[in-house]
Write a structure and sequence with these properties.
Elements lengths: L7 H17 L6 H13 L11 H14 L10 H9 L14 H14 L3 H9 L18 H27 L1
Helix pairs in contact: 1-3, 5-7
Amino acid sequence: MIDANISKPQLRALQSLWAAFAKRDIVEGDPREARLAAVGKIVGREIRSFSNLSQQEARQAIDALKKSIGQRPGRRMDRDRAQALGTEGRRGRRDTHTIASAEDFARLQNALDDLGWDHSRLDAWLRSPSSPLGVARRSDPTLRTQGDINRVCWPLERMLRRSRKQTIAGETA
């Protein structure tokens, strides 16, 4: 069975992801040649244009680029899950107290791994005066709800972005 050519949404996604990747990782030489060589390496063949990719190859390249810039590969999440990830745990908002899922804990673990933190360092931070959980939770910083995970992951992700910017600035200086 022959796989259809890349779809327009896939092409847009691939171009956007490449731009984010190229911004983060300094690409040397001709930008077009670098883009085609990198995606060709991902799909395992030489390509002359993104338009020559099959839908399966485009999915493969999109997932690889997402992973390389820190996004989770795969399909988009449903609307309710996305809203909960963006709102539960915010100050002044009444949480729905959704129990944290394995996916939430995996997101926390990924942030810890990227920062090079272990669980003892996380625990010390959660018990410190700068804990994102607040004063009342310092004695028992157990993470139970999606709001708890969000309140911890958001500052960790900011720390990670800041460290990446400093690394890139240090390399270009």
